[in-house]
Structure formats: structure tokens, C-alpha cells
UniProtKB/TrEMBL annotation:
GO terms classed as biological process: protein ubiquitination; ubiquitin-dependent protein catabolic process
Source domain of life: Eukaryota
PROSITE patterns per UniProt: ZF_RING_2
Record key words, sorted: Membrane, Metal-binding, Transferase, Transmembrane, Transmembrane helix, Ubl conjugation pathway, Zinc, Zinc-finger
Keyword Zinc-finger: yes
Pfam name, any one: zf-RING_2
A GO MF label: ubiquitin protein ligase activity
Keyword flag Coiled coil: no
GO CC annotation: cytosol; ubiquitin ligase complex
Official protein name in the record: RING-type domain-containing protein
Stretches of the chain forming a coiled coil according to its record: none
Length: 321
């Protein structure tokens, strides 16, 4: 049998091919096409509709946590009540997320501003401040409304701690803020790739937490099998794909590109005796591109995110000799 398939004469081997081969080939082709389409739709959902994607994960996680970490035991709770409680928890956390987002916006705006505050920018600040107060008022109304409806918002500390940590790891605004905070600490080991390492770590935490609560719910049968499978899809499968395609693959390319730009010594910076061509400021720390141009590590990283060419001479940094 084996000799038929290892025969070098291709015409002869074709004659020996079993008749059922073409339908299987066709089936595999359809399957591949279908998988590609599904993958494409999933990527659009994860990237373009990130809010819906993170909300789905959070809703699954919060609902699965409720019977184990909440104050009341599962049998006391009706299913819809668990959903409403999960949604209201997400809403309250979201208001906090919005608050952090706005504060970050104001802080960034005030850092960027070099001229004195104008009347217009003062009005913008005032508007943002009013909006934050409005969001907190919304939260208070929501809590009061839920109380009226008989849904006391009295989660225990453990539930709040676990769900809030999960929320932090999956919400868009925190996925952007935490890398910025770590970036400010200037940890050399992270090689200016905090914007990828930190979300990778946060997603890893979310996947482990999601898998653990899913598996535990399956063992103790605290949720229906279909809901557990749906949660597994959102919290583990989709998130793993998100991590792989949107962080891990980019990290590998950026690490390779960035590693070809050596850290400049003090003498090299002195010899260069020029400002960073990207931000036009003097340099105390710098990286040298293979084309011998010096830039701030942070400025270079921002440029390499958009293009793999040297910002000054357009030499392609990614290609290695
Ligand atoms: Zn610079
Ligand atoms: Zn160059």
C-alpha cells in the first residue's frame, strides 16, 4: 500500500487513488472556507464591536459567579434576577470606567496644553465635570430603582472584588490605561512593549478566571450546560483568539523589529549631538536604528507601530541582512 503513495511516477499514483477521495477533498474545502468566514466574522466582532464582546464576557462571568460568591444561595434566586443583578453590576462598574476615562482625558489635555487656559477650554473642562456628575447621578438613580424593584444591591465583598477585577481586565478603557501606567514606571525589561505585554497579561488573567468559573460551574452544575458552553465560547475561545491574533502575533513582530534597534550608550548620544527628529526634544535615552539614526525609545516605538520604516530615512527596519 505504502509503495503506491511513495511512487515517484505521479500518473501511476493517480490511478490508484480511491474513488471517495474527491468528495472528502470537497468537504475539506467547504469546511476550510466556512472556518475562514467564521474566523472573519469573529475578528470583526472582537475588534469593531469590542464593547459588545467585552459585555458578553462580563455578563457570562458575573452570572456564573453569582451563585458561588453572592450572598444568597442559588436556589433562592430566579434566573432572570441573576441576569439583572449581573447587568446592574456591569452598569455600575461602567460608570466608574467612564469616570476614569474622562479624568484621563482631562489630565492628558492639561498635559498637552502649553499655552494658558482659554475661556473655551475652561468651558470644556466644566462640561466634562458636569458629565461626570451626571453619570454618578445616573448610578445613584439605578441603585434606587433596583431597590424599588426589590433587587437589593448588597453583594458581598468577595463577589465585588472578583467581578471588579474581571471587569478591569476586560474593559477597553483599562486595557489602555494600565499599559500607560506601567509605561510611566519605565521598566527596562519590558523593552517599551508595555502596550502589548500588559494587555496580554490582563487577558491571560481573564481567560484563567473565565475557565475556572466555567469548569467549576460545570462540576457543581450551578448553570445550564448550554449557558456554560456559551460562556466557554466567549470567555475562553474568543478571548484566546483575540490574544493570539491581536496581541501575540503583533508582539512577535514588534519585538523582532525593536530588537534590531540597539540601546544607545551615553557616548553615542553625545556623538549624535542632535535632538530627536520625532518630538524635537533633547535625548537622555535613545535607540539606534540599523541605519544609524537615534530616537527616543518611546518616540521610535510609536512610529514603528504605524510603519516598519525609519522615521528619518525610510530604511525598512524589519528586514534583516
Ligand atoms: Zn522623541
Ligand atoms: Zn534611518
Amino acid at each position: 500500500m505504502a509503495s503506491v503513495y511513495t511512487n515517484n511516477n505521479s500518473e501511476e499514483s493517480i490511478n490508484y487513488e480511491p474513488r471517495w477521495y474527491p468528495p472528502i477533498g470537497f468537504f475539506l474545502f467547504i469546511k476550510r472556507e466556512l472556518m475562514e468566514k467564521i474566523h472573519y466574522i469573529e475578528q470583526i466582532f472582537v475588534i469593531k464591536y469590542f464593547t459588545a464582546y467585552s459585555f458578553s464576557c462580563q455578563l457570562c462571568f458575573f452570572t456564573l459567579c453569582r451563585p458561588h460568591l453572592g450572598n444568597q444561595y442559588v436556589e433562592d434566586l430566579r434566573k432572570y434576577k441573576m441576569f439583572v443583578e449581573s447587568i446592574s453590576s456591569i452598569l455600575l462598574y461602567s460608570i466608574l470606567g467612564y469616570f476614569v476615562f474622562k479624568v484621563r482625558d482631562i489630565w492628558r489635555g492639561s498635559r498637552r496644553r502649553t499655552v494658558a487656559m482659554t475661556a473655551r477650554s475652561f468651558i470644556n473642562h466644566l462640561k466634562a465635570f458636569c458629565k461626570i456628575i451626571l453619570e454618578w447621578a445616573k448610578a445613584a438613580i439605578l441603585v434606587l430603582y433596583l431597590r424599588e424593584e426589590g433587587l437589593e444591591f448588597e453583594q458581598n465583598l468577595l463577589y465585588c472584588l472578583v467581578t471588579f477585577t474581571y471587569f478591569l481586565c476586560t474593559e477597553n478603557v483599562f486595557l489602555k490605561i494600565f499599559p500607560e501606567i506601567i509605561e510611566a514606571l519605565q521598566i527596562d525589561k519590558l523593552d517599551n512593549l508595555e502596550h502589548l505585554y500588559v494587555p496580554l497579561f490582563m487577558n491571560f488573567l481573564a481567560i484563567v478566571a473565565g475557565f475556572t468559573i466555567d469548569f467549576y460551574s460545570f462540576i457543581v452544575k450551578s448553570a445550564s450546560t448550554s449557558f456554560i458552553l456559551l460562556s466557554l465560547y466567549f470567555m475562553v475561545y474568543l478571548r484566546l483568539k483575540d490574544v493570539y491574533y491581536n496581541y501575540w502575533e503583533i508582539l512577535l513582530v514588534e519585538r523582532e523589529t525593536y530588537s534590531s534597534c540597539q540601546v544607545a550608550s551615553e557616548k553615542q548620544i553625545e556623538d549624535w549631538d542632535d535632538i530627536c527628529a520625532i518630538c524635537l526634544n533633547r535625548m537622555s535615552k535613545a535607540r539606534i536604528t540599523p541605519c544609524n539614526h537615534l530616537f527616543h525609545p518611546h518616540c521610535l516605538k510609536l512610529c514603528l507601530r504605524r510603519s516598519f520604516n525609519c522615521p528619518l530615512c525610510k530604511y525598512c527596519i524589519l528586514i534583516k541582512e
